[in-house]
């Protein structure tokens, strides 16, 4: 297996990865593996983050995504109070066509070669059963199946954390920490979105859903014959009379076009990197929308898989994920106090912990 960069000649990796500790590329023609791992910061501990399996249009697109995602993981772990840094991996390909045991095991050997600086887990396109294959070649794997001592599907607590963040936003705007009687639009009802719909219905919300994968929508409608309806696209969804918009698919959800038509007063969802540009947070605020920062509210999955390192307890992990309510409220309080957007406030809280608690050496070299 080789580890040579495959970015296009026009891509300056060092410029793109400014602020990251390490970016490594894996290429294994025998299995079709093409992967990138980005370790953003290990100031608080080894970088933990999932492996995204996605058919990127180019290596540069994959590189930009893994850099953004790993940076978000550093902030997510810090804000969640975990002794972990930020890392992320992407495998370039279509998981429905290209995923195989051989590829996953080759990927496991590659992660093993990093010596524990990066701990992998599930993400879009990968599942707990995939992590079991990775773990056959690698010691640095979380998010494994329950049968193999793992936490299982991390989307359960990811959805739970998003719901807690949504409750904090409801408390902020409407004076009660509940979505009862509100209409919530969920874009993406795969692993996380499907669980989120269930929590919202239990709380008394009406839900409107959409997904590019029709069977995912059909499954949600079958689970919830009342109080849930579907629309054909995200473009339709954001034009609905929503109180809350929950992006739960891929990033960049809050682009200018969406902000311009969105009727919801709250945005709180599981998707990473919802703000496509640095000024997008200002655009959201100017539109009168309360934004719950994605890496603050979607940390439940990270909390869940991180708990495996202590011997997994769902009850303990859920209790810690419940704290996302208070963390989100603290972000809103700081934003109001310092007259900044919630996105800036979340960054400040995360970076303060990384400074105050981070290891003096800054680089995690393993035990």
From TrEMBL:
Any idea where the Glutamate/phenylalanine/leucine/valine/L-tryptophan dehydrogenase C-terminal domain is? 152-362
Q: Which CDD domains match?
A: NAD_bind_Leu_Phe_Val_DH
Active-site residues are 88 (proton donor/acceptor)
Q: Which UniProt keywords apply?
A: NAD, Nucleotide-binding, Oxidoreductase
Task: State the Gene Ontology terms under molecular function.
Answer: nucleotide binding; oxidoreductase activity, acting on the CH-NH2 group of donors, NAD or NADP as acceptor
Question: Which BP terms from GO are recorded?
Answer: amino acid metabolic process
Where along the chain is NAD(+) bound?
188-193
Which Pfam families does the entry link to?
ELFV_dehydrog, ELFV_dehydrog_N
User: What protein family does this chain belong to?
Assistant: Belongs to the Glu/Leu/Phe/Val dehydrogenases family.
User: What name has this protein been given in UniProt?
Assistant: Glu/Leu/Phe/Val dehydrogenase
């Amino acid at each position: 297996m080789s580890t040579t960069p495959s970015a296009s000649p026009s891509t300056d990796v060092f410029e793109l990865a400014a602020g990251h500790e390490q970016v490594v590329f894996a290429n294994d023609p025998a299995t079709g593996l093409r992967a990138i791992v980005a370790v953003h910061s290990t100031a608080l501990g080894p970088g933990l983050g999932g492996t995204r399996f996605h058919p990127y249009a180019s290596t540069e697109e994959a590189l930009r995504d893994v850099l953004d995602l790993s940076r978000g993981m550093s902030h997510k772990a810090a804000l969640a109070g975990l002794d972990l840094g930020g890392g992320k991996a992407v495998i370039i390909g279509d998981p429905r066509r290209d995923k195989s045991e051989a590829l996953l095991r080759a990927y496991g050997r590659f992660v093993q070669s990093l010596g524990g600086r990066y701990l992998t887990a599930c993400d879009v396109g990968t599942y707990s059963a995939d992590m079991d294959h990775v773990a056959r070649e690698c010691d640095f794997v979380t998010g494994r199946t329950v049968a193999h001592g793992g936490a299982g599907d991390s989307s359960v607590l990811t959805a739970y954390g998003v719901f807690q963040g949504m409750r904090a936003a409801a408390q902020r705007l409407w004076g009660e920490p509940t979505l009862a009687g509100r209409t919530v639009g969920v874009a993406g009802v795969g692993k996380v979105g499907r669980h989120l719909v269930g929590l919202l219905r239990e709380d008394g919300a009406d839900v409107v859903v959409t997904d590019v994968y029709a069977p995912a929508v059909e499954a949600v409608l079958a689970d919830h014959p009342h109080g849930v309806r579907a629309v054909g696209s995200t473009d339709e969804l954001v034009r609905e009379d929503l109180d809350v918009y929950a992006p739960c698919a891929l990033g960049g959800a809050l682009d200018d076009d969406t902000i311009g038509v969105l009727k919801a007063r709250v945005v709180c969802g599981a998707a990473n990197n919802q703000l496509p540009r640095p000024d997008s947070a200002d655009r959201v605020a100017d539109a009168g929308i309360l934004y719950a920062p994605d890496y603050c509210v979607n940390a439940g999955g990270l909390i869940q898989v991180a708990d495996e390192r202590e011997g997994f307890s769902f009850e303990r992990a859920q209790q810690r994920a419940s704290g996302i309510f208070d963390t989100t409220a603290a972000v809103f309080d700081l934003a109001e106090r310092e007259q900044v957007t919630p996105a800036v406030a979340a960054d400040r809280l995360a970076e303060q912990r990384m400074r105050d608690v981070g290891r003096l050496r800054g680089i995690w070299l393993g035990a």
